[in-house]
């Protein structure tokens, strides 16, 4: 059976093929490419074009020669304004079956539309994404030079070279890091995401590190995952004593990135309070992921600054200045910055953002309130993350912590002892 999606502004009567009628039980795993094709059509009809495209691509892994699925990919890309990709998909469908009626008609209408008004959807111009920026790369030994003052003081994002690549954990390699995590910290609790962190609604399984590492390399099937959202991610919020052990293999650490250690020791004084603070606020983390895993587009709600050290693999970043891009970033998780739907989120096209890859041995820094999204480029990708409080962000961090202590704004469940101690931190 075939259905018509109806008019799509100037491109009319775009057709999707609906195959295998019937409803698959909600919890039943997909069995064939056509099951996935049907699910993708439902997503497209509900407006989730990115989700539909992911499902169609997964369906093609089962049936790469299906002209029906390729036609549906083309239609979805047309609706997203990605016309050259749509044309390629339709051409591929017609190379398999030159007489495929829907693909032929969709291709004809697409070409007519592109000739009438290139770069537009109906009566509206298709936004064109502003060119992306590359991060300045600053050598570790030059960070204190006068021309780098804005970076040294945490005012602008940048990549630091020549520091993490001299760490013991970097020189000994990812297998050494893996073994240390497994043997020395294996019973510590980690957040395990078998279905990636690409959406804001995703929640982790809480498991021992050893279990998360085992599942990472050899999935048992005990944890539900959605094949439409590939990628496995481990996030370990590091306890204080474990951090002190890890830090011995993270030398040299730039002074600016170590200020939080001195700040916490001075204002909280007691180890049990520093440990509670670190765990509740995700202050220091070890992040491990497969290729294509990553974190959705967001800003950090605590409003501190952050750094990440790339120990293994490489990671693609989008980072956006919240002031320069005010009103164009939408809500957390809305925009996939690596493949933005500019028809649905047209204001994002006007953003001036960084888009760059952090390589193994490099460190990246971003200031308070900067929006960011990540995508791992290799398996395994291992990074160490830390949060910072400085003169640029202290007021914002103080406001969020006070809101949590007085009203439970973020449900971090900070103890009264910690909240009392934090009152001293705000004056340092």
From TrEMBL:
<dbReference type="Pfam" id="PF13621">
    <property type="entry name" value="Cupin_8"/>
</dbReference>
<keyword id="KW-0802">TPR repeat</keyword>
<dbReference type="InterPro" id="IPR050910">
    <property type="entry name" value="JMJD6_ArgDemeth/LysHydrox"/>
</dbReference>
<feature type="repeat" description="TPR">
    <location>
        <begin position="67"/>
        <end position="100"/>
    </location>
</feature>
<dbReference type="InterPro" id="IPR011990">
    <property type="entry name" value="TPR-like_helical_dom_sf"/>
</dbReference>
<dbReference type="InterPro" id="IPR041667">
    <property type="entry name" value="Cupin_8"/>
</dbReference>
<protein>
    <recommendedName>
        <fullName>JmjC domain-containing protein</fullName>
    </recommendedName>
</protein>
<feature type="domain" description="JmjC">
    <location>
        <begin position="253"/>
        <end position="405"/>
    </location>
</feature>
<dbReference type="InterPro" id="IPR003347">
    <property type="entry name" value="JmjC_dom"/>
</dbReference>
<dbReference type="Pfam" id="PF00515">
    <property type="entry name" value="TPR_1"/>
</dbReference>
<dbReference type="InterPro" id="IPR019734">
    <property type="entry name" value="TPR_rpt"/>
</dbReference>
